Amino acid sequence: MRNILYIVVFLFSISVVSQELNCTIVVNAQQTGDENLPVFKTMERQINEFINKTKWTDKSYLPQERINCSMFITIQDYSSDSFKGTLQIQSSRPVYESAYGTPVYNYNDKDFSFNYLEYQNMIYNPTQFESNLISILSFHVYMILGMDADSFSQKGGEPYFQQARTIMQYSQQENFKGWQQKDGLQTRFTLIDNILSPTYKEIRNVMYSYHIGALDTMHENQKLGKQKIANSLKQLEVMNRRRPNSYILRVFFDSKADEIEQIFSGGPSVNITQITEMLNKVAPMHSAKWRNIKF
Question: Residue 200 CA to chain centroid, in angstroms?
Answer without folding.
Answer: 18
